[in-house]
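lol forgot to send this yesterday, sorry. struct tokens for the thing we talked abt
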């Protein structure tokens, strides 16, 4: 009887160990399996040209003097530097970990057709075809002329939105560097001045948090478009000067939008009227 019990215990232990081995077999295999290499080994800062193609639009991005610009016909616009950098970093992380199909005849059904991104440096060109969504976070992807279609993540910002221009006005980049602000509209002038970390409005004490909100509105001011053929009136509806050198000029376009020029640049931004009207402050807005 004792021998039978002992055999039963041993058998039970063996079965448990066998089950644990089967459950951990895949983990063990993954530990010893060599890691999948990334598709592209080039350095992020080596790229100097990117072309993004969809069924309806082609966007050409070129790096000049270390800064990305959007080329449209004969014009060049400032590009969204942070977005482009993120796109490059995400592409460099791609690996063929999950191959969905190696059948070339299936590619069209997976959306592998016209959508692609081309990255170039001085020595190489890489083509990444982006197909349909495989899930909310992944796309079907093909690399260069290979037949393998695999799953790739982090590619949303390549396709949407399709405007790669930097629509941020960059009128204020660092609020801590602002020492004086002059606001002019409707024939009135308002002066904000910072002395020893204390703000005043028209030489009277102002509330710092109100100034902070206002400066943040200037820092985050963003347009909906950059126009090159805007018909602008002679007199701006609103002017704001920063530190006696930076200047923002806002001209009425229509009841919903303004044309805005910043620091005498060649670009005219179209900005929603609600954002510009929010900058038309009075002394009580900063002191009460």
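and heres what i got for the seq, position by position
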């Amino acid at each position: 009887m004792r021998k039978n019990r002992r055999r039963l215990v041993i058998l039970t232990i063996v079965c448990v160990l066998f089950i644990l081995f089967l459950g951990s077999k895949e983990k063990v295999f993954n530990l010893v399996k060599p890691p999948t290499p990334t598709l592209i080994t080039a350095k992020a800062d080596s790229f100097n040209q990117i072309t993004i193609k969809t069924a309806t639009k082609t966007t050409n991005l070129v790096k000049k003097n270390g800064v990305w610009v959007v080329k449209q016909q004969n014009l060049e616009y400032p590009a969204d530097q942070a977005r482009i950098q993120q796109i490059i970093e995400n592409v460099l992380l791609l690996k063929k970990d999950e191959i969905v199909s190696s059948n070339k005849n299936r590619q069209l059904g997976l959306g592998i057709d016209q959508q692609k991104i081309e990255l170039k440096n001085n020595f190489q060109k890489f083509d990444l075809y982006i197909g349909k969504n495989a899930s909310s976070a992944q796309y079907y992807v093909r690399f260069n002329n290979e037949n393998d279609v695999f799953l790739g993540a982090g590619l949303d910002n390549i396709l949407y939105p399709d405007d790669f221009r930097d629509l941020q006005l960059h009128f204020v980049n660092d609020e801590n560097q602002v020492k004086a602000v002059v606001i002019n509209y409707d024939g009135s002038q308002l002066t904000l001045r910072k002395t020893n970390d204390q703000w005043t409005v028209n030489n009277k004490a102002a509330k710092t948090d109100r100034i902070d909100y206002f400066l943040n509105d200037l820092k985050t001011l963003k347009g909906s478009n950059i126009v090159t053929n805007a018909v602008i009136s002679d007199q701006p509806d609103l002017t704001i000067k920063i530190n006696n050198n930076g200047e923002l000029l806002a001209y009425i376009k229509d009841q919903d939008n303004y044309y805005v020029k910043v620091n005498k640049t060649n670009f005219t931004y179209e900005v929603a009227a609600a954002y510009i009207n929010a900058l038309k402050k009075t002394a009580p807005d900063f002191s009460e």
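Helices lie at 2-32, 81-92, 156-159, 208-219, 273-277, 283-287. anyway ping me if u want another try
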